[in-house]
UniProtKB/TrEMBL annotation:
<feature type="transmembrane region" description="Helical">
    <location>
        <begin position="101"/>
        <end position="119"/>
    </location>
</feature>
<keyword id="KW-0812">Transmembrane</keyword>
<keyword id="KW-1133">Transmembrane helix</keyword>
<comment type="similarity">
    <text>Belongs to the CcmH/CycL/Ccl2/NrfF family.</text>
</comment>
<dbReference type="InterPro" id="IPR038297">
    <property type="entry name" value="CcmH/CycL/NrfF/Ccl2_sf"/>
</dbReference>
<feature type="domain" description="CcmH/CycL/Ccl2/NrfF N-terminal">
    <location>
        <begin position="17"/>
        <end position="122"/>
    </location>
</feature>
<dbReference type="GO" id="GO:0005886">
    <property type="term" value="C:plasma membrane"/>
</dbReference>
<keyword id="KW-0201">Cytochrome c-type biogenesis</keyword>
<keyword id="KW-0732">Signal</keyword>
<keyword id="KW-0479">Metal-binding</keyword>
<dbReference type="GO" id="GO:0017004">
    <property type="term" value="P:cytochrome complex assembly"/>
</dbReference>
<dbReference type="Pfam" id="PF03918">
    <property type="entry name" value="CcmH"/>
</dbReference>
<keyword id="KW-0408">Iron</keyword>
<keyword id="KW-0472">Membrane</keyword>
<dbReference type="InterPro" id="IPR051263">
    <property type="entry name" value="C-type_cytochrome_biogenesis"/>
</dbReference>
<dbReference type="GO" id="GO:0046872">
    <property type="term" value="F:metal ion binding"/>
</dbReference>
<keyword id="KW-0349">Heme</keyword>
Length: 127
């Protein structure tokens, strides 16, 4: 029984990734990493960015962002990699695609419908 539970217990005791809390040596790269981390959602906390979250998963994501920025990748390449790995939900900056365009169009349609109803009801002068 202990052999079966060993992997689960080891997971919780694993040390944080090296760059989870340690900054990059190059200030420009660290600034780019910080800016990117502010726009990525912690998948465990969901209401915090990975820069603000203390969740182990957020630490792993910060580590990935920093090592990829240090390797010379652009922030948008790192964002695209994380979105491919974790899904669009990881980014606070939504992407308009064939799947998501109704989310952007519905509020406009709703406001136009309300405006049309109000104009028909109150806009015509009584003759």
């Amino acid at each position: 029984m202990a052999l079966v539970a060993a992997p689960a217990l080891a997971q919780g005791n694993a040390p944080p990734a090296p760059y989870a809390y340690r900054q990059l040596d190059d200030p420009a790269q660290e600034a780019a990493a910080q800016e990117l981390m502010e726009t990525l959602r912690c998948l465990k906390c969901q209401s915090q960015s990975i820069a603000d979250s203390d969740a182990p998963m957020a630490g792993d994501m910060r580590h990935q962002v920093r090592i990829r920025i240090a390797a010379g990748e652009q922030p948008e390449e790192v964002r695209a990699w994380l979105m491919q790995r974790y899904g669009d939900y990881v980014s606070y900056a939504p992407v308009v695609s064939a799947r998501t365009w109704p989310l952007f169009a519905l509020p406009v349609v709703f406001l136009l419908t309300i405006a049309a109803v109000l104009w028909r009801r109150f806009g015509k002068g009584k003759a």
